[in-house]
Amino acid sequence: MRGRAAAPKRPLNRRLALVYFVLRFSVIGVMIAQFFNRDYESVFLCVLTLLLFLLPSFFERRLHIDVPDTLEVIILLFIYAAEILGEIRAYYIIFPYWDTVLHTLNGFLCAAVGFSLVDILNRNTRLTTFSLSPAYMAVAAFCFSMTVGVLWEFFEFAMDQFFLLDMQKDTVINVISSVNLDPAGGNTPTMVWDIADVILVHSDGSQQVLGLGGYLDVGLLDTMKDLFVNFIGAVVFSIIGYFYVKQRGKGKFARRFIPQVMDPPGEK
User: Any idea where the domains of the chain sit in the sequence?
Assistant: First the structure.
């Protein structure tokens, strides 16, 4: 009985190899600097980033797929932008739309991955009973992307609840409406306009004016915004994928984001 042969290792494109080198060199430099600064949490993030950089090649070998260079570069840049620039360099705070851009890109990429999974199944000659329409594949890719987005928001919520990391960033708003403010104690929403500030009253009776210029919404608006832009990214690629299958692979743009199956040599 012959075992399953390993998939051939695809040689790295020069540009892709350069991206790998530059990003890894940068991460190692940041890791050394944070180590001497005794910021061991950032050191851990750098180690995690280096491990995440290995995921595309790991999945290529284990799943016998060819990840397009364009998709691989975007994945690497996404990881770097989220962990090194976003967390360690505080781009999430410096640039208000940094998180929004990454979540939009995440929706796009996850839809591409979900689409490729269904496309691989649909094109498998051993599974002749499957013949999925382009519309079904597009919907499946969209649902896969949205599921990943929701699971990530669950993760952020859990980190905030159990470790108080504030991954679901808060938003300052000036208007709220709540049934808890109904003077009659009923179920009528009562609005409060032009909220100027929040005063914290501590357990010892002392008070602290936060100086926020409004009410601090705890994570809800950030979560819904992240899911909405994830939705946009997923819809965009699902439409692209639909026409890619409709024209059976003629679209050069979509091909840059859809992994393809590599048949391992010697497999029977």
Answer: 14-95
Q: How many whole angstroms separate alpha carbon 257 and alpha carbon 131?
A: 22
The whole model's pTM is what? 0.85
The string of DSSP letters for 63-76 reads HTEE--HHHHHHHH
Q: In angstroms, what CA-CA distances link 25 with 20, 35, 74, 178, 263? A: 8, 15, 17, 51, 33
Q: What is the pLDDT along the chain (268 residues), one digit of tens a residue?
A: 444 444 455 556 888 999 999 999 999 999 999 999 999 999 999 999 999 999 999 988 887 888 999 999 999 999 999 999 999 999 999 998 999 999 999 999 999 999 988 888 777 656 555 678 899 999 999 999 999 999 999 999 999 999 998 899 888 999 999 999 999 999 999 999 889 998 999 999 999 998 888 988 888 999 999 999 999 999 999 999 999 988 876 778 888 898 887 765 555 4
Can you spell out the DSSP letters for the chain? -PPPPPPPPPPPPHHHHHHHHHHHHHHHHHHHHHHHTT-HHHHHHHHHHHHHTTHHHHHHHHHTEE--HHHHHHHHHHHHIIIIIIIIS-HHHHSTTHHHHHHHHHHHHHHHHHHHHHHHHHH-TT-TT----HHHHHHHHHHHHHHHHHHHHHHHHHHHHHH----S--EEES-EEEGGG-TTSSS--EEE------EEE-TTS-EEE---SSEEE-SHHHHHHHHHHHHHHHHHHHHHHHHHHHTTS--HHHHTTS-EE-PPTT--
